[in-house]
Design brief:
alpha+beta, Ribosomal Protein S5, domain 2, globular, four-stranded antiparallel sheet, 25% strand, Alpha-Beta Plaits
Length: 300
């Protein structure tokens, strides 16, 4: 017997890194998905062929087996449309899909609270101290605000599509999180100022998202990128991608996720997105991404 589950990737529209220190962030699922098939196995525990044994998929599924006190074993197979290590939540989507597939296989239930717990454990391998934002959006889908104190809250807005520009430079999220921590310890006063500015940007963005006011959203993205540059998580590849987006006609662009490479997101009027993608596609991998898609699901 086998079960396949899938979960979406994500973009952080505003507020990354500062969310670790209690601020809100705005996050949306995107229409790129990871899939995990869990099958009954004669071997005890969880196995995933072709991967190191210590990885998010195995740890998430193992957590489910421990909670259920499952005595048998399961084998996992993964596939993903989400590029790895570029800020689009690939590891969280794999962790959530793995937990969901294992839970459905072993209990025929899909308890999202337990799936989130398991995926959060799996994410610790990649992110050391994950905020929970990536696993929340992979589980619930849609879009919302996220704070560490209140968790994920759904946010209904009218922005439907953005461009995602992949710089091609991979990085480790944990390294960037540590870099921000060091910045905060070295200059706490400046960090608090940036923290407050990030909070203001997130609050302002909510109204513009609901009203589908794309040009003001672009200006807020530019402000947000300035903050991320100040805390040291931008990179030359990111700056080139941001500049290219602006030169091509975007209203605004910023890194999304941890930074240090990875992806840049950009907003423009919908009728201009294809032209922007064509221009940017000469230099980068570009996705026209749909926002607010379905969260984790069991596939037929």
């Amino acid at each position: 017997m086998s079960v396949t589950a899938s979960a979406p990737g994500k973009v952080i529209l505003f507020g990354e890194h500062f969310v670790v220190y209690g601020n809100p962030a705005i996050v949306s699922s995107i229409d790129l998905r990871a899939r995990v098939t869990a099958s009954s196995s004669r071997e005890e525990g969880v196995t995933l062929e072709g991967w190191p044994q210590e990885n998010p998929a195995v740890r998430s599924a193992s957590y489910i087996l421990e909670k259920l006190r499952w005595k048998g074993g399961i084998s996992l197979k993964t596939s993903s449309e989400i590029p790895q290590s570029v800020g689009l939540g690939s590891s969280a989507a794999i962790a959530v899909a793995s937990a969901a597939a294992a839970l459905k296989l072993c209990s025929d239930k899909l308890d999202l609270k337990l799936v989130l717990e398991a995926a959060h454990e799996g994410e610790k391998i990649i992110h050391y101290t994950p905020s929970g934002i990536d696993t929340s959006i992979a589980a619930f889908g849609g879009a919302g605000t996220y704070t560490r104190s209140e968790g994920y809250r759904e946010l209904d807005f009218r922005l439907e599509e953005i461009l995602i520009v992949n710089t091609g430079r991979q990085r480790r999220t944990g390294d960037l999180v540590r870099r921000v921590k060091e910045f905060r310890e070295k200059d706490p006063k400046r960090f608090e100022e940036l923290l407050e500015e990030s909070k203001r940007i997130v609050e302002e963005s909510v109204d513009h998202l609901k009203a589908h006011e794309v040009e003001p959203l672009g200006k807020l993205m530019i402000r947000n990128q300035e903050l991320l540059r100040a805390i040291g998580v931008s990179a030359p590849e990111i700056e080139r991608a941001v500049d290219a987006c602006m030169s091509a006609g975007a209203y605004g662009a910023k890194l999304t996720g941890a930074g240090g490479g990875g992806c840049v997101i950009a907003v423009a009027d919908y009728d201009k997105l294809d032209l922007l993608a064509e221009k940017l596609g000469k230099y980068f991998q570009v996705f026209r991404a749909r926002l607010r898609v379905e969260g984790v699901r069991i596939e037929p």
